[in-house]
Write a structure and sequence with these properties.
Layout lengths: L2 H18 L3 H7 L5 E5 L6 H17 L3 E5 L6 H8 L7 E6 H10 L12 E9 L2 E5 L7 H10 L5 E5 L3 H13 L4 E5 L2 H10 L4 E4 L1 H9 L3 E6 L26 E7 L5 H15 L2 H9 L9 H22 L6
Parallel strand pairs: 1-2, 1-3, 6-7
Antiparallel strand pairs: 3-10, 4-10, 5-8, 5-9
């Protein structure tokens, strides 16, 4: 073999090796190379769905790929969550889960088809927001203390409506556990029906999202008493926080987050998390979330994993003390 031939052969071998040794960072930057599907386990038009659609519309611009939202609803978010937990770990199927799917549902059912930790790769928080405590305007109370006193003086006459196991339900149960107020639960299949009955006076109080009841508050048909945060929010500047009222233990947020199937690469997860952070920090999205009464927070994957662990421990105790079960 001639020297010239040997040199050429070496160059060909080196070129072949270089083509197969693509750095991980380069592969991550190539993601996504096709449309991404995001599964929302709740109906279209709800708070989770709207927040996801508005955010992913901006992510499409950053990624240069379309993002398709698919609503797979049912079984308290388990159907859509379970679907993603079994999807291919390639970064092209993600779940927009939340407090219910990953911190509450596993304690409401005897048999949950997925493990919220083992069966998912954590990606990033995707906003969180307090719930506001509102009462029918005919109820003779104007503060949280007055509500608790009134409920104790009228045992089992103050009712609240909420879907079973929803943040609205858990906030009410936490209030009952912390104050001893004998408020009575009236279960509803959906939040909208509960709000309708609250405005009509069929139930007396409710924890709910600001955007859901803003018009009724403005019209004077519902009276806000407190929000479940450590500070007031721009959407309700005159409503005190639970911390202001000396009830720090009632602080809570209904949160959303992105999850991927188990085994999804760190490079892909980090890329999605980083781009989401940029979108959520844009002034347009910040203003949008504040108008909804929410906070456009994000996180690293590790921060989300730690946060979910804390939330699971907290709500497991509330669910157990309240004896909340969906299947017996």
């Amino acid at each position: 073999m001639t020297t010239k031939t040997s040199a050429m052969r070496r160059r060909l071998i080196l070129a072949a090796l270089a083509s197969t040794a693509v750095p991980l960072a380069a592969r991550a930057n190539a993601y996504p190379s096709k449309p991404i599907r995001v599964v929302v386990p709740w109906p279209a038009g709800g708070v989770s769905d709207v927040a996801t659609r508005r955010t992913t519309a901006r992510l499409e611009q950053a990624f240069g790929q379309s993002i398709v939202i698919e609503n797979k609803v049912g079984a308290s978010g388990m159907i859509g969550s379970d679907y993603v937990s079994k999807a291919a770990p390639d970064g092209y199927t993600l779940l927009r889960g939340d407090m219910v799917t990953h911190a509450v549902t596993p304690y409401l059912f005897k048999n949950t088809p997925y493990d919220p930790v083992r069966d998912f790769t954590h990606v990033s928080l995707h906003g969180r927001g307090p719930v506001v405590l509102v009462v029918n305007a005919s109820l003779p109370v104007h503060t949280l203390d007055q509500l608790v006193t009134y409920a104790k003086a009228n045992p089992e006459k103050v009712t609240y409506g909420a879907p079973i196991g929803a943040p609205q339900h858990l906030a009410s149960e936490l209030l009952r556990q912390l104050t001893g107020a004998p408020i009575m639960f009236v279960p509803y299949k959906g939040e909208s029906h509960a709000v309708t009955d609250l405005v009509a006076g069929q139930v007396q109080m409710m924890f709910t999202f600001t955007i859901v009841v803003a018009s009724f508050i403005k019209a004077g048909r519902l009276r806000p008493l407190t929000i479940t945060l450590d500070k007031r929010i721009p959407a309700l500047p005159d409503v005190p926080s639970v911390r202001e009222l000396g009830l720090k233990e009632l602080e809570m947020s209904a949160w959303g987050a992105f999850f991927a199937p188990p085994g999804t690469s760190k490079e892909v997860v980090d890329r999605f998390s980083a781009e989401l952070g940029k979108v959520m920090n844009s002034q347009e999205v910040v203003d949008l979330y504040h108008n909804l009464g929410a906070d456009p927070v994000t996180s690293t994957p590790d921060q989300l994993a730690a946060f979910v662990r804390t939330e699971r421990e907290r709500w497991a105790k509330v669910v157990e003390r309240a004896g909340i079960r969906i299947d017996q």
